[in-house]
Structures are given as C-alpha cells and as structure tokens.
Specification:
The chain is α/β, with parallel strands linked by helices. The protein has ten helices and eight strands. The strands form two sheets. It has a five-stranded parallel sheet with strand order 2-6-1-7-8, sandwiched between helices. Strands 3-4-5 form a three-stranded antiparallel sheet, with helices on one face. Helix 3 runs parallel beside helix 6, helix 5 runs parallel beside helix 9 and helix 8 crosses helix 9. The two termini are 16 Å apart. Bound molecules: cytidine-5'-diphosphate. The site of cytidine-5'-diphosphate has 16 residues, from helix 2, helix 5 and helix 9.
Amino acid sequence: MKLTIAIDGPAGAGKSTIAKILAKNFNIMYINTGSMYRAITLKALEQNIPSGEIEELCRLTDSLDMYFQNDRLILNGEDINDKLSLPEISSKVSHYASIPEIRVRLVKLQREMASKFDVVMDGRDIGTVVLKDAAFKFFLTASPEERAQRRFDELKRKGLDVNYEEILKEIIRRDFLDSNREVDPLRKAEDAIEIDTTGLNINEVVNKMSSYINKTLENIFMGDINE
Ligand code: CDP
C-alpha cells in the first residue's frame, strides 16, 4: 500500500511543521506545495511579471525546474527557501496561485512527485484535487489570532521586523482569497479529518495524527493476515 498523507488548511495552521515531523517519523518525503506557488511568485516579482500576464507566467513556470531535497525546494539548482517566507511574497502569492494555468502546471508536477514516492504533502487543495485518493487526509485549522501569533513568532525567530496586527490582517485577507477563488479553493475534503489546533502544541497534533495513521495501518495489516 502506498503511504500518502494529504494535509490542507489555512495559513499558519502548523501544516509545514507537522508535515516535516510526520515525514521524518514515517520515513517518507515531504512536499510543501505552498513553497512551489511562492517560488513562482518570487520569480515573477524578480522579473516584473504582473499576475495579469498569463502567457508570460506560463512561459516562466515552464522554464523552472523544481524538486525537493531534504524538505527544501530546489529551483533551477538553487536553494531559495530563505526568500520564500518574506512578507512581500506572502502578500502577493494568493494572486498568482489563483491563476488556473499556473495551477494546472503545478498540480501536474505535484502528482508526478507523489507517484514516485510515499509522501506527505501540504497545501490548500491536496485532499480535494491533487491527491484525491490519498490514504490519509487531514484538515488543520486554528483561530486567526493563534495562527497570526505563530507566524509572528516564526518570522521574529528568523530576525524579521514584523508587526502582529499586520500579520493578522494579512492572514485573514489571504484566507479570504484562497477560500473564494474559482479554481481549487481552500476547503476541507469530505473524507478529511478536521483538527482544530487552537491551544494544542505541535507534539499534541502530531500524536493525534500519528496514532490515527498507525491504528488504521494496523487494522489494514490485521485484515490482510486474517484473510
Ligand atoms: O505557510 P502558509 O500557510 O502561510 O502558506 P503556504 O502553504 O506557503 O501557501 C502560500 C499560498 O500559496 C497560499 O496562501 C495559497 O494562495 C497558495 N497555495 C495554493 O493555492 N495551493 C496550494 N496547494 C498551496 C498553496
């Protein structure tokens, strides 16, 4: 059986931290699809391509070579991960991510990656679109205030000069754009398990998810033995 774990949810719900730990614990690959949309945004901004220039953006996307190595996105041979969490990228990414032609290209790439390896993949449309048949689907949420506080702490740790109120506003705006776009909006897959992580620490969330996965795998294994 292929081990495929899909994690969706709004900004700052803890998806990437949790996905990294699950990847390590289950010895599978972590694919952070948000970083792929962020990478397109970074390159588009560097080359002054606005989100209305669809043809140019398609050409740009097709020219980029993306793969993951040790949880990090390598873009045309370069590790650009440190630039991806910059506030300029966060404030523009939802506009570029709402373009259907870009989504088609990245979804194809994400499916190819998942077809080669056992993966945990996080994003907005993983359980609903990219990996509809994933063995495990989770939808992580938390209050906007708690998500903004987590993002604030994360950016502070990276040495950035950030403001809590601005981050909260930005997170609420991005959730609105991601949930209301026409193509592949952020929503919980019907068969996903929802976990409200408000007030829970990372270990508590990881334990909840891991014990659900382990129990299900055990049941499948016991079913196989009893047949
Ligand atoms: O880390 P954070 O939750 O802030 O966001 P992210 O996972 O890095 O995703 C950045 C943005 O990319 C999201 O706000 C979405 O606009 C877009 N995205 C998407 O549309 N589909 C995905 N599968 C992943 C990200």
